[in-house]
Design goal:
Structural class: mainly beta
Helix content: under 10%
Order of helices and strands: EEEHEEEEEEEEEEEEEEEEE
Distance between the termini: 43 Å
Length: about 290
């Protein structure tokens, strides 16, 4: 995290998006905490909508530098907006949420908002964006009295290279699959519907030794058409480097995992694959723009 005048900022380039819903009766904050731990989210942003059965909100007194007495609402309310983030506090996952709600009263519709202390979901659909190359810690800030993101703790190493992202949870049941939580009721769906795999369900891969600069071509392979890559083969991309193929969609899209562990979909509309080269038992294809293959 770097300073630009009085502003502190860092940049995330490796992003996972996890979408899903909660079951009725789940504690919203606890559910997001469970999700963050199970999906290894060290830094993320939360957006959601739905309805509360119960909600407790608080407001921060800037002069006194403390939260005022919380207000609990035990009547049903609509979630107009639920925003927040995930980071680390004392080395543990920490969820910070603000909610804007509406409820029906004798005087008409009332709109309320504040810092979310507790909330019981009637229904809640969410999007969590995980910034896998960023880690933010919360520390006490004397200017506000709050525990804010620290300017000197992020994911950038001494060499200036981002720390490697954690691999998503392993799945053996295909996709989309049920997302576990502390209550066993939090569910997730894939980023796109249909036969596209859920990125969060891809297994961890092991990176091979990089191929030699001039590796020999396959000498005993059949026609090029019979050598189209399959799941488990490797591709060498001019921008992303060496990646293993996790899925192939309609022979036009490759879903790969980058060396950082982040997933990536590569469309072949304007790209082509060279004939494979062999490194041991591994097939490696080079990706390059069409009409430029040597």
């Amino acid at each position: 995290m770097v300073s630009n005048g009085s502003m502190l900022a860092t940049e995330a380039r490796q992003v996972r998006r996890i979408v899903g819903r909660m079951e009725r009766g789940e504690d919203v904050i606890e559910a997001f905490l469970s999700l963050a731990k199970e999906r290894q989210i060290r830094c993320g942003w939360i957006r959601a909508l739905g309805a509360f059965e119960f909600v407790e909100l608080a407001e921060y007194d800037q002069q006194e530098q403390r939260y005022r007495a919380a207000r609990a609402f035990e009547t049903q309310s609509e979630i107009l907006e639920l925003n927040g983030n995930i980071s680390l506090k004392d080395g543990e996952c920490f969820v910070h949420l603000h909610a804007t709600i509406s409820r029906d009263t004798d005087n008409g519709i009332e709109v309320l908002g504040g810092h979310l202390l507790r909330g019981t979901a009637f229904a809640c659909e969410f999007l969590v964006e995980s910034f896998d190359d960023v880690t933010l810690q919360r520390r006490y800030d004397p200017a506000t009295g709050l525990e804010l993101w620290s300017p000197d703790l992020d994911s950038v190493s001494v060499s200036g290279k981002p720390a490697p992202a954690p691999a998503p949870a392993r799945s053996s049941s295909g996709f989309p699959r049920r997302m576990p939580s502390s209550s066993g009721t939090l569910k997730a769906v894939s980023e796109r519907q249909g036969e596209r795999p859920s990125f969060v369900d891809m297994p961890r891969i092991t990176q091979p030794t990089p191929p030699p600069e001039r590796a020999p071509r396959v000498s005993d392979a059949g026609p090029w058409e019979s050598q189209f890559p399959v799941q488990g083969d490797w591709v060498e991309h001019p921008q992303y480097g060496l990646c293993q193929i996790q899925a192939i969609i309609d022979n036009n899209e490759l879903v790969v995992r980058l060396t950082s562990g982040a997933p990536k979909t590569i469309r072949l509309d304007f790209l082509e694959l060279s004939a494979p080269i062999m490194q041991g038992k591994q097939r490696i294809y080079r990706i390059q723009p069409k009409h430029t293959r040597s």
